[in-house]
């Protein structure tokens, strides 16, 4: 039992942590609710005692009428809803959503930021409930169940949901190409500081042309922090660059010596132009406390991260940091709807018109994305050289206040 055994009263219903004496009731629910993929009595007993699970019961009067089981994987910030069941006679009393919301709250106390689940594609009632509670489809498992049915995968950022009312407006822009995360993050920051900043593809591509390193590990070049800083200065913003290095930022992933030499020429040009433009360059990493101080002063911050923790790929990716609280930093990720699939299992690209309403909903999951402060250090480092780089951006009207540590 990973969470504490608080009892919650909802009119004549109670929610409480399961105990070993509830095994008979749990077995009855399992038999009544499932024809396949049932949890055995032995497994139920295991999850009641396990430190990596949360098993909550719903009880009306003296009868246990439903349960929800969440699994907490070691080393992960996500929790997984493994099973949710309510006796047929007790349905219609909003017991299932109450159980799920309670499980989310308990998962948060265990430092989990996301809840994930699988649901049979033909279980329309459950899908409707999950969507109503803020869950968004992000993938599909083919022939997942014993019956051969596919499972739709849903996710919810539970910390993000909890903080939604406390986070102010911060504009979000979805990048239109796979190589323009830097311009998109910068556009969000500039729009936050100055509402008349243009939010369109022409601006996105124009910034990329001025900030690109020309080449990357594959495809078009990513954006150099000095290039982005120069693009912001060109548009009237003050910028401070924090970077553990300004040379050879991305050359490790490029095999061709010819391409590497061109990238170095581009970098040298950025360095010279940044000096001419009086861009402040701090050749050290920015501290977490400095990021928080900058946000508190109303400045904008964009940061280069590695996407490894998100998708298992070591790709440099620019994001905007929108907010900080006692536990988390919150990110606007411009690569919205990555991994979003339609009903046929086909990945939707950014320009797809199918399932447009659902795609717009999914985009919300890439706004104010919560990252525990203790995880930020490993997220915000890229490559063999351990590159760390951030830009602190101010409007021309903001005072040139320092965020340097005293």
| Rg over CA atoms | 24 Å
SS content category: alpha+beta
Q: What is the total number of structural domains?
A: 2
Query: What is the string of helix and strand elements?
Result: EEHHEEEHEHEEHHHHEHEHEHEEHEHE
The termini sit apart by 45 Å
CATH superfamily of the largest domain: Cysteine proteinases
Which CATH class of the largest domain applies here? Alpha Beta
| Share of residues in helices | 25-40%
Q: How would you describe what is shown here?
A:
- Helix 6 crosses helix 7 (201-211) and helix 7 (201-211) packs across helix 8 (225-234).
- The chain is elongated.
- The two termini are 45 Å apart.
- It has an eight-stranded mixed beta sheet with strand order 1-2-3-4-5-6-8-7, with helices on both faces. The chain has a seven-stranded mixed beta sheet with strand order 10-9-15-11-12-13-14, sandwiched between helices.
- The chain has two domains: 8-165, Gcn5-related N-acetyltransferase (GNAT) (Aminopeptidase, 3-Layer(aba) Sandwich), CATH 3.40.630; 167-337 and 352-395, Cathepsin B, Chain A (Alpha-Beta Complex), CATH 3.90.70.
- It has 13 helices and 15 strands.
- The protein is α+β, with helices and mostly antiparallel strands and 406 residues long.
């Amino acid at each position: 039992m990973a969470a504490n055994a608080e009892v919650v009263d909802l009119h004549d219903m109670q929610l409480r942590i399961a105990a070993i004496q509830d095994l008979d009731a749990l077995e009855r629910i399992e038999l009544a609710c499932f024809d396949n993929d049932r949890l055995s009595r032995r497994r139920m007993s295991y999850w009641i005692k396990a430190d990596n699970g949360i098993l909550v019961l719903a009880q009306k009067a003296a009868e246990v009428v439903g349960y929800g089981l969440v699994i907490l994987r070691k080393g992960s910030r996500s929790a997984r809803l493994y099973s949710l069941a309510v006796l047929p006679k007790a349905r219609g009393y909003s017991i299932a959503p109450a159980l799920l919301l309670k499980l989310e709250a308990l998962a948060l106390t265990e430092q989990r930021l996301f809840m994930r689940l699988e649901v049979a594609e033909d279980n329309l009632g459950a899908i409707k409930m999950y969507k109503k509670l803020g869950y968004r489809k992000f993938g599909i498992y083919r022939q997942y169940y014993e019956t051969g049915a596919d499972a739709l995968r849903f996710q919810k950022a539970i910390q993000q949901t909890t903080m939604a009312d406390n986070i102010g407006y911060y504009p979000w822009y979805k990048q239109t190409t796979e190589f323009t995360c830097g311009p998109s993050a910068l556009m969000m920051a500039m729009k936050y500081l100055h509402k008349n900043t243009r939010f369109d593809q022409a601006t996105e591509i124009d910034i990329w042309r001025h900030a690109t390193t020309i080449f990357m590990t594959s495809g078009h070049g990513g954006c150099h922090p000095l290039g982005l800083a120069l693009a912001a200065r060109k548009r009237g913003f003050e910028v401070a660059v924090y970077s553990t290095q300004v040379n050879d930022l991305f050359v490790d992933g490029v095999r061709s010596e010819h391409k590497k030499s061109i990238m170095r020429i581009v970098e040298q040009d950025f360095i010279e132009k940044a000096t001419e433009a009086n861009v402040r360059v701090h050749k050290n990493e920015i501290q977490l406390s400095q990021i928080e101080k900058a946000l508190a002063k109303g400045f904008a911050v964009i940061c280069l991260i590695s996407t490894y923790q998100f998708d298992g790929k070591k790709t440099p990716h620019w994001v905007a940091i929108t907010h900080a609280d006692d536990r988390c930093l919150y990110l606007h990720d411009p690569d919205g709807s990555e991994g979003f699939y339609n009903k046929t299992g086909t990945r939707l690209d950014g320009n797809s018109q199918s399932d447009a309403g659902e795609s717009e909903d999914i985009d919300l999951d890439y706004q104010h994305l919560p990252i525990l402060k203790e995880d930020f250090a490993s997220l915000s480092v890229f490559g063999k050289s351990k590159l760390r780089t951030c830009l602190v951006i101010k409007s021309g009207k903001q005072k040139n206040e320092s965020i340097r540590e005293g």
